[in-house]
Automatic annotation (TrEMBL):
Organism: Brachionus plicatilis (Marine rotifer)
Keyword annotations from UniProtKB, A to Z: Cytoplasm, Repeat, WD repeat
UniProt subcellular location: Cytoplasm
Name of the featured protein: Cytoplasmic dynein 1 intermediate chain 2-like isoform X5
GO cellular component: cytoplasm; cytoplasmic dynein complex
InterPro entries from the UniProt entry: Dynein_IC (IPR050687), WD40/YVTN_repeat-like_dom_sf (IPR015943), WD40_repeat_dom_sf (IPR036322), WD40_rpt (IPR001680)
Chief location category: cytoplasm
PANTHER family registered for this protein in UniProt: CYTOPLASMIC DYNEIN 1 INTERMEDIATE CHAIN-RELATED, DYNEIN INTERMEDIATE CHAIN
Gene3D superfamilies: YVTN repeat-like/Quinoprotein amine dehydrogenase (2.130.10.10)
Length: 142
């Protein structure tokens, strides 16, 4: 565990509460998330970090999806909704199976995300410092 309380990255694609998230048991960079709007999103961090790699809208978003679980093989996923229904989806082999270098790619992706996060924090710190200084100047002229 680290002493750093800041996340490496924040995913902001969901328009509703995220109820469950699960890493693929076979692909180091692939995870799925379900939300209250009835969406199942698949994120492959080695492909894209700003938007999901694939999404499924369940029943035109009329049901909150609140639980997910990957199969051990990583080629199926089961979801549960707020009406008590469970659905099993098959994930294509091309999407679910990792390439040989996926773990190395993920390490690079995480390092890049950490670097961007640090740059963002430094920028915000500088902006806050500049803002405080500007406020100080404004107050001193009153």
């Amino acid at each position: 565990m680290t002493n750093n309380k800041s996340p490496i990255f924040t995913f902001e694609s969901h328009g509703d509460y995220v109820y469950d998230v699960g890493w693929s048991p076979i692909h180091p960079a692939l995870f799925a998330a379900v939300d209250g709007s009835g969406r199942l999103d698949f994120w492959n961090l080695n492909k894209e970090t700003e938007t999901p790699s694939a999404s499924i809208d369940i029943d035109n978003r009329t049901r909150a999806i609140n639980k997910l679980k990957w199969s051990r093989k990583g080629t199926e996923i089961v979801i549960g909704d707020d009406h008590g229904e469970m659905r099993i989806y098959e994930i294509s082999e091309n999407f679910a199976r990792p390439e040989n270098d996926e773990y190395d790619k993920l390490l690079k992706t995480l390092e890049n995300l950490k670097k961007l996060n640090q740059e963002s924090m430094n920028f915000n710190l500088n902006c806050n410092t500049d803002s405080n200084y500007i406020n100080y100047l404004i107050e001193s002229f009153k």
